[in-house]
Amino acid sequence: MSGAVRRVQSGSPWEESFGFARAVAAGDRVLVGGTTSFKGTVLYGEGDPYEQAKVAFTSALEAIGEFGLGIESVIRTRMYLTHVRDVDAVGRAHQELFDAVRPVSTLLVVEGFVDPRILVEVELEAFRG
User: pLDDT averaged over consecutive 10-residue blocks of the chain (129 residues)?
Assistant: First the structure.
């Protein structure tokens, strides 16, 4: 694969103020950083961890799509939740999307996010070898 590093922005307001990219391709890997269910300034699925997880993973998949990759390329996912009560809802969203792919996965419960309405944040890693 190409040795060049390529970055993709999503338009998140935090990308500019924090100085980060939504996704970075380096070598055979494409990494997608913390992705929520925000699209621009609109939070989708407010109060619904299942919907937030689906929207966040869909946005993360769109980011790897910028590199010509699809869901079959995903090798790792990470899910960060603010409440343990949401584990089943977020797990169901993950299974619906990734059941056929079966990436290695980590789920963590965290203290909170930059906006208290965010219940779920996700990351993924894809392989383009």
Answer: 72 66 91 92 96 97 96 98 98 98 98 96 96
Q: Order of strands across the sheet with 23-26? A: 5-8, 23-26, 29-35, 120-127, 74-81, 104-109
Q: Position of tokens 């790897």?
A: 64
pLDDT value at residue 3 = 67
- Write the DSSP symbol of residue 22: S
Chain mean position to CA 122: 4
Q: Selecting from 3.30.2010.10, 3.40.1190.20, 3.90.1180.10, 3.30.1330.40, what CATH number does the domain 5-127 have?
A: 3.30.1330.40
